[in-house]
Amino acid sequence: MDLAQAEALRALLAPTGWLDLTRSFARALRRRARIADGLLVVGTPDWEPWHITAHLADESRLSGLPGLEPTLVRWRVPPGAPPHLSVGVDRLERAGRPETLLVVSEHAAPPPLLERVDGARRAGAAIFALDQGDPELDGLAHEVLAVQPGRAPVSFGVAQHLVSLAAGEAGAPRASGLRARLSRLLNVVAGPPPA
Questions:
Q1: Which of 10, 33, 45, 174 has minimal CB crowding within 10 Å?
Q2: Domains in the chain and their CATH numbers?
Q3: In the prediction, which pLDDT does 144 show?
């Protein structure tokens, strides 16, 4: 999904209230994820949340918000994986205050994930859940965005786009709209204009 598509989707979704939900969730995530390397993103043993992790990394870079730079936590790290893709699920055992754990799951969280999330919560980490309405996971989370099939006006993938976009702009004192986003992107690619 490119920026123009995202902006068009936002215009279509504005009357549904869904944008308010994603912005509220994203603002809470942004407020909580303030330290570098403090945002941990994890999925289930069968599914890794690459999509939202990549978009949050982009938003962190484009917005100049190091706290939004995610660390992908993986259930299985293949031998020889680069360092940024080598963070195993055991990292959750060391999660605590002031870290933030974003659990992204299209399916019900299995018991091993729930146990780790509960441990991180007890150690003081803030828990965010982007799921499809998982009562057990939602019961552990401080903030929840449930993308329930048939009830939400967007797919799970689109919800990830909306959350990451909103996290990069939530409450930021900057120009709004496509022009501002393109300007930030050009500054990243070409560098800021000469003084």
A1: 174
A2: 3-190 (3.40.50.10490)
A3: 98
